[in-house]
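Late entry, evening session. Most of the bench is empty. Finally got around to the prediction I had been postponing all week. Sequence below, unchanged from the version circulated by S.P.
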Amino acid sequence: MTALIGMYSAAKAAAKLPSDPDLAFCYSMLTEVSRSFAIVIQQLPNPLRDAIAIFYLVLRGLDTVEDDMAIPVAEKLPQLLSFHKDIYDKSYTSSCGYNHYKRLMSNFGHVIRVFLSLDPSFQKVIADITRRMGEGMAEFIEKEVKTLEDYNKYCHYVAGLVGIGLSELFASSHLESEHFRSDLENANHMGLFLQKTNIIRDYLEDVTEIPAPRMFWPREVWGLYAAQLDEFKEPVNRTAAVQCLNHLIGDALQHLPRCIDYMESIRHPQVFRFCAIPQIMAAATLSMCYNNGAVFEGVVKMRRGKTAVVFHKCNHMGDLLTWFIDFLSVLRAKAADQADPRDPTLPTTAAAIAAHMQLCKEKLRTWEKANPTSKSALSIVRDYGALTLTGTYAYYACGLSGDNELPVFLQPYASALQQHRQLQQVLSVAMLLLVLLFVLSRR
């Protein structure tokens, strides 16, 4: 309950728009195109928050150009290659895109005006990553993702570069050290882990895209299990589809140790939360997708309540490693109990899961030794005082005391306890449970 309330508060904060009309448009668009990102970005202080918001919208604009299948390739290529220059033109607009993205592109001047108001160091990073991503998208616009090398390269262009750009923005904000400008490999792995998770989860949405399907699963992998990628959506091919799915999840998991290395280098708590939430969500998604035929019937998503708990409890490396261990445990159980023994990648994936679990447990033990748990006397008094009060209320409201006289502090309420007894019982138990959940969530 505490987590849901916290997430609701974060959503309300994300919905509260700045007074500046250009910034207001940008943050309203963030909420429309990605509510989860709009909430996550609230973790950050300014000016970094505005810089990353614009970074996200600029890349969304570039992605909208790439995704619009109505634009002929001959027109799309120069647009992708020049987009990093267009973001300096206040008059730039485009009619491409659908729904929210069409509104974004037709009003892109708002984004550009905020971009031009950012510190030049932020502008330089955003423009450079936009250029490199546009070039990568142009390379793959008519190129099939055939090999695992192609797959890694495509994911680098559309997500690894985002991780690299974010690292450079962290350094430019001075919230993190200059080391982040050079830690490019780990930043790339952060992006690849997220992008591969999305590609795996979004199989059905991509393969049924109108007017033309989008094929991101590498032929080198899916070709081992089918003649055509779209065969996996047919129930008759479910065994092969799930084996291919498991193969790609095993590939995605290889990035986890490098993501841990990156997260260990973050020092600012708000930057840590901003980076940790998507990583935890990706690990959770992979654990849900593994050996799950539902991926080929729709989108597999985490329950809102679980998502709220992740948002509530991801404040340091101890939390991150604990979440990773939890989701790796789910993967280990699925590999042991549910996966087809004939699955060709099962031994490799099971070994990788075990190795990652051992790594996370070792790092968690090291972290716990360096950060012993401590609770202030005031918080202990608060927690157990609240439990005592609500427990006493429930004890007497439910009549567990028999004929014993009420304690002194409850005697003024004796008549109230006799009235509406059933309502009192329900309320007292509910209050006790809420307080108990709150105390446990703070442990």
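Two things to note before I forget:
Residues 1-5 have pLDDT under 50 and may be disordered.
DSSP finds 22 helices and no strands in the chain.
Will write this up properly tomorrow.
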